[in-house]
């Protein structure tokens, strides 16, 4: 069956329509980036690295401070600090594994 004038058959793709679809996708992507709905791919990796670094440093510094305070209050130097540092390392690794194991957005 022949198509009428101005109609495109199912088996033939019009290159103009394909070009229009590509331009629409690109425009939607640019608008999503502009409004902050989508982050660029390089920002996602940078953000993930910052989260891992913050988890590592925060856990270690926080646990060391708590251990030092325990040692000062109870006179158990250096055992409170050592025990809390090991707990801080365990918490940091757990957080890093949780962050790295998450599904990408």
SSE ordering: HHH
Estimated helix fraction:
over 70%
- Average pLDDT reading: 84
Q: Uncertain spans, ≥5 residues at pLDDT below 50?
A: none
Structural class by helix and strand composition: mainly alpha
> How would a textbook summarize the main sheet?
none
**Rg result:** 28 Å
Terminal-residue CA separation: 46 Å
Overall morphology: rod-shaped
Tally of DSSP β-strands: 0
Specify the number of helices. 3
Oligomeric organization of the protein chains: single chain
Q: How large a portion of the residues is in β-strands, by DSSP E?
A: under 5%
Provide the fold topology.
Layout (H helix, E strand, L loop, with lengths): L14 H21 L5 H34 L4 H23 L4
Helix pairs in contact: 2-3
Describe the protein.
The protein has 105 residues and is mainly alpha-helical. It has a domain at 40-101. It is built from three helices and no strands. Helix 2 (41-74) runs antiparallel to helix 3 (79-101). The longest helix is centred in the middle third of the chain and has 34 residues, at 41-74. The protein is rod-shaped and about 95 Å long. Pfam families: ATPase_gene1.
Brief account:
With 105 residues, the protein is mainly α.
Highlighted features:
single chain, 105 residues, mainly alpha, 3 helices, rod-shaped
